[in-house]
Write a structure and sequence with these properties.
The chain has 1084 residues and is α+β, with helices and mostly antiparallel strands. It folds into 9 domains: 160 residues, no CATH class; 103 residues, Immunoglobulin-like (Sandwich); 104 residues, Sandwich (Immunoglobulin-like), CATH 2.60.40.10; 108 residues, Sandwich (Immunoglobulin-like), CATH 2.60.40.10; 143 residues, Up-down Bundle (Four Helix Bundle (Hemerythrin (Met), subunit A)), CATH 1.20.120; 59 residues; 193 residues, no CATH class; 80 residues; and more. It is 42% helix and 21% strand. The protein is built from 22 helices and 40 strands. The strands form 11 sheets. Strands 21, 22, 23, 24, 25, 26, 27 and 28 form an 8-stranded mixed beta sheet that branches. Strands 2, 4, 5, 8, 9 and 10 form a 6-stranded mixed beta sheet that branches. A hairpin with a 2-residue loop joins strand 19 and strand 20. The longest helix has 42 residues. The radius of gyration is 61 Å and the shape is elongated. The N and C termini lie far apart (140 Å).
Length: 1084
């Protein structure tokens, strides 16, 4: 040891080394104790088969001994740390050092008196002692060697035991480590019982036990006789042990012997083992529960919404549950005790129910569209065991697919191109149809040519339907081809049903021709028009696909020229067909349809083509698309008309000797007409709404889209006009019988005229026609023989005639007037607001003596006439004065002679007052007109006086007429005076009537004086008072009728309610209540 090292440092280092050796010895002791304890327990357990209690005590004792040693020998002395004082003292003891030299030197070395001779001597003495000792005695090597030898011995013994009997040793070790686990003691064989552990049973269940017995590996060479295993019961809830049950041998699988036993009708909880020799199996616990009883069961069936059915309840198990597929079934079960789970089984499906408030179990069954009826079972689960507690039957009611068919339709049908076909589609479904439809496709490829559907809204739909489908075999139908017609329907559940197919074969062109030359000409002309229209439509479709490229390439003009040329050719051929197919061939309906197509539709198409070059590219696309749609409509109409001509001609040729088919009755035709007129009303309302939105727009302000809308409206109105014309013709074929009412035909005629004019007005645009002087001719007729009726108007006036001034007024002869003047009343075909003042101003300096019509159509026209063939009630009043002679007077401001001796005052637009001062004739005429005149016509005869003053020179006053008016008014006043006392006697209001009598007296006085202003004022006041009196008397009478059936008490209740204040916001409700009470009492 170096001299300069302190005593304390040296002792501290030796103390650390000594503590490590002592800790090592302590751990070796612990291991030795554990090894010997485990070895002793394993050997003892092999001999005595300790129960779990003994094993538990042994494990606790062994653990306590080890822990006690650790506490006493390691933790308490703190072997991991040795103070220097302890080290010094143990060295003094080990080396028999007296006088405490080491401990004294250690204490004095750390003090402050090192310079003291006595202290330095003690320290020196300590250093000398330290030089003669070592650390070895502190480690107690003798004890460490003995402990290590014992540990080695324990390891050898335990390893030998594990080497000789590994299974036994392993089992014993497990039984020591897990003393309370169900581990059988070691034996020469292994017994396994199935099932194992815990099994839950319902009371009375039967369980099958299987045992597997095999020898351990270390016993293979010394096998004895395999005893038959037995089931040994260890006691149940009753405390009574059943006799052991011997198992039956069922076979051998290699070294495994199999045995089986059946426990029938297990009634109580049991614990059992399988015993074979000294070997036992793990414990099997049978937990038995009573069988649950089903106290109640409810099935609530909620059918699908489309069926319209109410929910149904089915109670009790064992009965049947009926539900429509698609329904929702709610299940509620109640049991008498708690279980682990409830399942409803039916078919190959299982519905797991959910616990709700103890013994209640709920579940939901969604009945799919494809389900099979059958039995259901209610099964409860306890652990892994299930038991059926109830059963019944489910009956799923199927929703049948829709049934559809065409009424009275053969499997095949020949049709003419353009023929109007009609099919009646009938359908039914047990719970309602939401829509049905018709498709017409191509036989090859099945491409749909026509599709139409009828919607019936949401559920529940319609259970039985019948729809009439009309289609025209137009441009989409090719001659000689076959097209399958099929109907379909969809019910509320989404199921689809279809009809049998009907094959439609379109006749070829060669079958069109007949022996009728007019029909041949019409068919030929229409065929040329169709071909030209197809060429024009094809060019339009090409331009529609390549608008941008055409505009950028600058070839728009060439494309437009191609389209326009073909369209003009189609119009020219259409006019030829119109000439060939006159009224004797097809009737006015056919010619009207053809004229609409040729003149109106084709005219609009040509007008649209003419605006292509001045249209920007974006709007050009819209116009081209609209033109294509219009040309498609034209093409279909031409084909339809061609087929109608051919079919009619063929029918006329084969009609001789044929039996006419049974005609529909008048009631059926009227019923069909009523349904169609209801559709007509709906369509007209829509057209009115759409027209009203565009009414305030000027023609030049309309966009391309708005022009297309107007075109569609015009086309629709034209179709309805043709339909109404057909019905007028049908009504005209039925002569009126006794007491018959012909107003229906008259009203149809009025409606047809209005619709026809509305269609033409939508087609028409305002035009100005300039007439040069060279084209203006004078007829100068001397004899009037023509009837003006052929010039009656059949279209609205949208033309303005601009005639060149002749410069010199010609000398017109005064023709001899005819014996019967033929004034024609023209129907007013449009409202004044729809015409501009430009159009209405149609005057000129021309004058003539006309025989072929004093007006163009039913218009006065711009030429003054001296033939007294004037037309009244015409379309437009002239804002300038027209001269000449007239039977009743020309419209508008006019001058000249009225040659008739009587005037009827034909209806028309209000005639404006004249401006010139032409004198009136001295004679007077018989005037039967009832309406007030709107103005004065120069050159006329006096007949009466009007309401308003005139701008121009008026007629002389007619005081004699005013006096007659006063006499007539006196008679009316006397009747009113006789009526007034009767009203007062009955308690009815009479104040308004008295005021009216006063105004009548004032009117009489004004008529005597000739004061026209006062006459009008008092007349209006008297009429107003009489109307007020009628309203008051009617109201009082209604009150009297309603109160007549009330008792005194009921009347008091009503009046008391009216006298009380009504809470704000309840006025309407209270009023309705009292009204209902009064109506109910009056009915009694």
């Amino acid at each position: 040891m170096r001299e300069n090292r302190s005593i304390g440092g040296q002792l501290s280092e030796w103390g650390r080394l000594a503590s490590h050796k002592r800790l090592l010895r302590g751990f070796v002791v612990i291991i030795t104790m554990a090894l010997f304890g485990v070895t002793i327990f394993c050997v003892a357990d092999l001999v005595f088969h300790f129960p779990s209690l003994v094993r538990g005590v042994a494990a606790i004792v062994l653990l306590a001994v080890v822990c006690g040693y650790v506490w006493q020998r390691i933790i308490s002395p703190r072997l991991w740390r040795m103070p220097t004082e302890r080290v010094a003292r143990e060295l003094e003891v080990a080396y028999s050092i007296d006088d405490n030299s080491l401990i004294n030197a250690l204490q004095l070395e750390e003090g402050d008196n090192k310079m003291n001779p006595l202290v330095s001597g003690v320290v020196r003495r300590g250093r000398e002692v330290m030089g003669g000792v070592s650390v070895q005695p502190l480690g107690e090597p003798q004890k460490l060697r003995r402990v290590v030898m014992l540990a080695a011995l324990g390891i050898v013994v335990l390893a030998g035991y594990f080497g000789v009997c590994p299974d036994y040793a392993a089992i014993s070790l497990q039984r020591l480590v897990l003393p309370w686990a169900d581990i059988p003691p070691p034996a020469d064989r292994v017994v396994e019982l199935e099932p194992a552990g815990r099994v839950d049973l319902f009371e009375g269940d039967t369980i099958t036990l299987e045992a597997k017995v095999r020898y351990r590996r270390e016993q293979r060479g010394v096998r004895g006789v395999m005893e038959t295993p037995q089931i040994v019961f260890q006691g149940g809830m009753s405390g009574v042990k059943p006799e052991p049950l011997e198992m039956k041998f069922v076979g051998r699988d290699g070294g495994i012997h199999r045995y089986r036993a059946v426990l029938e009708g297990v009634r109580e909880t049991e614990v059992l083992r399988c015993v074979s020799g000294i070997a036992v199996s793990p414990r099997l616990s049978l937990y038995v529960r009573g069988v649950p009883q089903l106290l109640s069961s409810d099935f609530v069936v909620r059918p699908p919404a489309y069926s319209g059915g109410a929910e149904e309840r089915f109670n009790g198990v064992g009965g049947g549950v009926r539900a429509l597929v698609g329904s929702r079934v709610e299940v509620v079960f109640k049991l008498d005790r708690a279980v682990d789970g409830v399942t409803l089984c039916y078919g190959n499906r299982e519905v797991v129910l959910v616990a709700d408030r103890g013994e209640l179990w709920r579940g939901v069954i969604d009945v799919g569209m494809v389900q099979e009826s059958g039995l259901y079972q209610i099964r409860v689960r306890f652990g892994r065991r299930e038991r059926m507690v109830g059963e019944g039957s489910f009956m799923w009611l199927a929703d049948m697919a829709p049934q559809l068919s065409f009424k009275d339709e053969a499997p095949q049908r020949l049709v003419w191109p353009g023929e109007e076909l009609q099919f009646t589609l009938t359908g039914n479904d047990d719970y309602g149809l939401v829509r049905i439809g018709v498709t017409i496709g191509e036989l090859a490829g099945e491409a749909v040519v026509v599709r139409h559907e009828w919607e019936y809204g949401e559920v529940p739909g319609e259970r039985e339907v019948e729809e009439v489908y009309r289609v025209t075999a137009g441009g989409a139908f090719k001659a000689g081809e076959v097209y399958p017609l099929q109907g379909y329907g969809v019910d509320c559940a989404g199921q689809t049903g279809v009809t049998e197919r009907v094959l439609l074969r379109v006749r070829r062109v060669g079958e069109f021709m007949s022996n009728d030359s007019a029909a041949q000409q019409a068919v030929t002309a229409l065929q040329r028009a169709i071909e030209a229209e197809r060429r024009s439509l094809g060019a339009t479709r090409t331009l529609e696909l390549h608008v941008a490229e055409t505009v950028s390439a600058g070839s728009l003009e060439r494309h437009v020229k191609t389209i326009e040329t073909s369209q003009k050719m189609a119009q020219r051929c259409g006019r030829e067909a119109l000439t060939a197919a006159d009224d004797t061939l097809q009737g006015p309906t056919y010619t009207g349809r053809l004229r609409n197509v040729v003149e109106l539709e084709m005219g609009l198409a040509l007008a649209t083509i003419g605006r292509f070059e001045a249209t920007v590219q974006q709007e050009l696309k819209v116009r081209v698309n609209g033109l294509a749609e219009r040309q498609t409509y034209i093409l279909e109409e031409l084909i339809a008309l061609q087929g109608r001509v051919a079919a009619s001609a063929r029918a006329a040729e084969s009609a001789a000797g044929a039996t006419a088919p049974m005609m529909a009755t008048d009631e059926e035709r009227l019923r069909e007409l009523l349904d169609t007129m209801e559709d007509f009303v709906r369509v007209q309302r829509r057209i009115v709404e759409q027209s009203r939105m565009l009414a305030e727009r000027l023609p030049e302000d309309l966009t391309a889209e708005e022009e297309e809308i107007l075109g569609e409206l015009a086309r629709e109105e034209a179709k309805w006009a043709a339909f109404l014309k057909d019905k007028i013709n049908d009504l005209a074929k039925n002569p009126l019988q006794d007491f018959a009412d012909g107003s229906l035909a008259d009203e149809f005629n009025e409606v047809w005229q209005d619709v026809q004019k509305a269609a033409e007005e939508l087609y028409a645009k305002k035009l100005e026609l300039a007439v040069p002087l060279e084209q203006s001719g004078l007829e100068n007729a001397e004899e009037l023989v023509n009837n003006l009726e052929r010039w009656l108007p059949d279209k609205p006036d949208y033309l303005k005639w601009l005639m060149e001034d002749p410069g010199v007024t010609p000398d017109v002869p005064m023709a001899e007037l005819p014996g019967e003047l033929e004034d024609i009343v023209g129907a007013l075909l449009d409202e004044e607001e729809a015409m501009t003042e430009d159009v209405e101003d149609a005057t000129s300096s021309w004058i003539d003596s006309l025989d072929k019509g004093a007006g163009w159509d039913a218009m006065d026209g711009p030429i003054s006439s001296m033939s007294a063939k004037g037309v009244t009630g015409n379309l437009l009043p002239n804002q300038q004065e027209i001269g000449g002679r007239s039977g009743e007077g020309r419209t508008g401001r006019s001058t000249g002679q009225m040659v008739e001796s009587a005037a009827e005052g034909k209806d028309g637009r209000q005639t404006p007052s004249r401006l010139s001062d032409t004198p009136f004739e001295s004679a007077s005429i018989e005037d039967s007109a009832r309406q007030d005149s709107g103005g004065a016509t120069g050159g006329g005869k006096l007949s009466g006086f009007g309401e308003k003053g005139l701008q121009g020179p008026g007629s002389p006053p007619r005081l004699d007429a005013m006096k007659r008016l006063a006499d007539k008014q006196a008679e009316i006043r006397q009747q009113a005076e006789r009526l007034a006392p009767h009203l007062r006697a009955r308690g009815l209001p009479s104040g308004d009537l008295g005021a009216a009598i006063t105004h009548m007296r004032q009117l009489e006085a004004a008529a005597e004086k000739g004061d026209g202003t006062v006459i009008r004022q008092t007349f209006d006041a008297a009429v107003g008072r009489i109307r007020d009196s009628r309203t008051a008397v009617g109201g009082a009478e209604r009150v009297r009728r309603e109160a007549a059936g009330l008792t005194r008490r009921e009347a008091d209740e009503l009046w008391s309610g009216l006298r009380d204040d009504i809470p704000p916001g309840y006025e309407a409700i209270v009023g309705a209540y009292y009204k209902r009470v009064s109506e109910t009492r009056s009915q009694r």
